[in-house]
Amino acid sequence: MERNGQLELYGSLAARLKHAHTRVAGLQVTDEVRIQLSRKLLVVTAAAKHDVAGASRRLDALMRDLDEGRFPDEGSP
Fold it and tell me: Residues 4-44: pLDDT tens digits?
């Protein structure tokens, strides 16, 4: 049973990540900002391999920032 629940979490996170990538690709921002946001999404993807719940929280925070118009500064790591 736990295995099915874990698969559902992975599936849900994967769908949300796909949506997030599409959203980032459509933003009217500089290429530098888009690259930084894409890197953040890659970090979330990598984190999902070890901690699905933590990756989900990271994605929630990133999407909240996007919703509120908070983008990384150009030139910041």
Answer: 777 888 999 999 999 999 999 999 999 999 999 999 999 99
Name the domain count of the chain: 1
Q: What's the whole-model pTM score?
A: 0.84
CB 27 within 8 A of CB 70: no
Domain assignment present for residue 37? The answer is yes
**Is residue 1 over pLDDT 50?**
no
How far apart, in Å, are the Cα atoms of 67 and each of 4, 23, 27, 52?
31, 11, 11, 22
Could you tell me if residue 73 is inside a domain? Answer: no
Expressed as residue numbers, the domain containing 39 is 2-67
* pLDDT (0 to 100) of residue 75: 61
Longest dimension (CA), the chain: 46
In a domain, 52, yes or no: yes
